[in-house]
Amino acid sequence: MKTVGFRSVVLYILLAVFLGGLGYLVVNLFFHGRQWAMQPYNGHLSAQMGDIKDRNGNVLATSQDGERFYSDDETVRRALLHTIGDTAGYIGTGVQSVMGDKLTGYNLITGLNRTPFTSLSSKLELTVDQAACAAAYNAMAGRSGAAILYDYETGDILCKVSAPTFDPAFVPEDIETNDAYKGAYVDNTLSSSFTPGSIFKVVTAAAAMDLWPDSWSTRTYECWGSEEIGGSNITCLHGESHGNQDMFAALGNSCNIYFAKLAGDMGGEALQRKAEEMGFNVNLDFHGVTVAKSSLDLSAANANELGWAAVGQYTVLTNPYHMMVLMGAVAKGGTYTQPRLTERGDFFSGVGTPGRLMGPETAQQLKSLLRSDVENYYGDWMFPQGMNVCAKTGTGEVGEGKAPNCWMVGFCDSAQYPYAFAVVVEEGEGGIETAGSLVSAMLQALA
Ligand SMILES: [Zn+2]
Fold this sequence. Notes:
Blueprint: H1 2-37, E1 52-53, E2 59-64, E3 67-70, H2 74-79, H3 81-84, H4 95-98, H5 100-104, E4 124-125, H6 130-140, E5 145-151, E6 157-163, H7 188-191, H8 201-211, H9 215-218, E7 221-223, E8 226-229, E9 232-235, E10 243-245, H10 247-253, H11 256-266, H12 268-277, E11 285-286, E12 289-290, H13 303-310, H14 320-331, E13 335-336, E14 355-356, H15 360-378, E15 389-396, E16 405-412, E17 419-425, H16 431-446
Parallel strand pairs: 1-4
Antiparallel strand pairs: 1-2, 2-3, 5-6, 5-17, 7-10, 8-9, 11-12, 13-14, 15-16, 16-17
The structure holds zinc ion.
């Protein structure tokens, strides 16, 4: 009896260990199976992935005889590299990495074995428009940057381009050593933040609207090109004097002194609070991909630094995806539609939580200011007829003898063209010249 009892105990222990181990494996398979199967070193997997098409049915990627092929058009291949991803899987935010399981038909039960059911889900139709992406890429003219545009009603991302880029069909041999490809695996639309310059005046203006409801139409300041604030000078571009201006004229002229004085009067705390309400210092989530933060930290800023922060210098950084949804929120009365890359119930799709970034009055007032910018300063002639573009440009000074970051952010106040966008080009000529012409090219392709 004694021996049998001992054997039973041993058996029970072994059984418990076995079941524990099995449970551990199942739990891990459930939570990590997808990642295990999709490791970049399983390089052959991308060659089994299904077709990826754009919204008009153009093939962006396909597999044949164990090889992965991309669009026939080199410009399209380069323009959409970061959205689709590369064959080796280095671009972690691309569709082929994030949705690799869908594309290969990976399934928790059957693994990577094709079944009549899993092969059904191995194709993807993206919301992007390849012509708009190619137009944006061409307008970058070989410079680095990001261009992203979406339909603020449906959430469809129509254009998403990052540079530097490379041709996924002919991966350059010197990609790891040539400086021209530095950062080529990074999607600048999602994973980078840049010095914004004057596009940040939109945030400063919104903060003032909260404190003084009539400020957007009544508050004036004088500008004589340069003024001492907090011990050193704040200057306007080329030392230009803008005279006595209200907010409409100050935003149109992109007057630094107006917005520096405005921030001085409201104080750093009010600007910090409003910026955070509008999505600064927050990692936005793009269906599981963590977006790089836009950041503002005024905790150690003196009066002069607060003035420069108010015009998007100092240590302020902005992310293109965030700027796009911020503009989408202005267009939609303060709450933005969650962007998506596919229409079906996949990782990059679905309804998502709409984000409230400001109240409806602030959105309406910002819309008036941004519309005035294009109507009275940049010129509607820049854009396709009837798009009713509302926008703000910026030139973020980055120092080190480099030319500025050239930005344009905005949206079309139009039921026919409900597009919001953010564009940044590094080392460009100017906001309107460089970023404005890129936005124009993108909108022409969608007109
Ligand atoms: Zn000025």
